[in-house]
Specification:
Layout: E1 3-4, E2 8-11, H1 18-25, H2 40-53, E3 57-62, E4 68-77, E5 79-89, H3 98-113, E6 118-123, H4 128-135, E7 139-149, E8 155-164, H5 165-173
Parallel strand pairs: 5-6
Antiparallel strand pairs: 1-2, 2-3, 3-4, 4-5, 6-8, 7-8
């Protein structure tokens, strides 16, 4: 799967992406709401087994530089028509719209070409990640209170968001905006 946006290409990962991926997954600030930063050997194993062999994620390549600036998890969750989406981007590309651009293109592709029923996401970050989920058209489906631990071992709420096919289609019908 290759999806091109104005500034990026979403594509499968290659072993040669390990250095770029390590810059992302090895960054403590980037991994704040996920898990402890990865050491290089963990990144190599994750890249090979989860991303390449498992085909559970896409690389977000910056067109201008050819550098992998993001990782987008996109995997089936038991049912072929329901997928989970998640994203992690290099810190130097935060707040520039790259995550929105890449995830929005993937969502459009998924609903139009893969005939999905639902795309969902979860986060313990109620501000930045939840904000992007809302911008992508996802609806808050629930909050699991003190469901998981953050990287410091503290209990954290888990926010669940989802986007249904019919919501996506309605948004498309009205030029990218949901009908009031």
């Amino acid at each position: 799967m290759n999806i091109e946006t104005a500034r990026t290409v979403l594509r499968g990962f290659h072993l040669e992406d390990v250095d770029d991926l390590q810059e992302i997954l090895g960054d403590e600030q980037v991994m704040e709401y996920l898990e402890p930063p990865y050491e290089r050997d963990r990144t190599e194993e994750f890249l090979k087994e989860f991303c390449i062999e498992g085909k559970n994620a896409l690389a977000v390549e910056h067109k201008e530089s050819g550098k992998v600036i993001g990782y987008v998890l996109f995997k089936s969750c038991g049912q072929r028509e329901v997928y989970e989406i998640a994203w992690v981007f290099h810190r130097s590309f935060w707040r520039m719209g790259y995550a929105y651009e890449a995830c929005q293109a993937l969502i459009v592709y998924a609903f139009k070409h893969m005939e999905l029923q639902k795309i969902f996401a979860e986060t313990i970050d109620p501000v930045k990640s939840a904000g992007l989920m809302k911008k992508l058209g996802m609806q808050l489906e629930g909050i699991q209170r003190k469901q998981t631990r953050n990287v410091r071992g503290e209990w954290a709420d888990l926010y669940l968001y989802g986007l249904l096919r019919e919501e996506f289609e309605e948004k498309e019908k009205y030029g990218g905006k949901a009908r009031e």
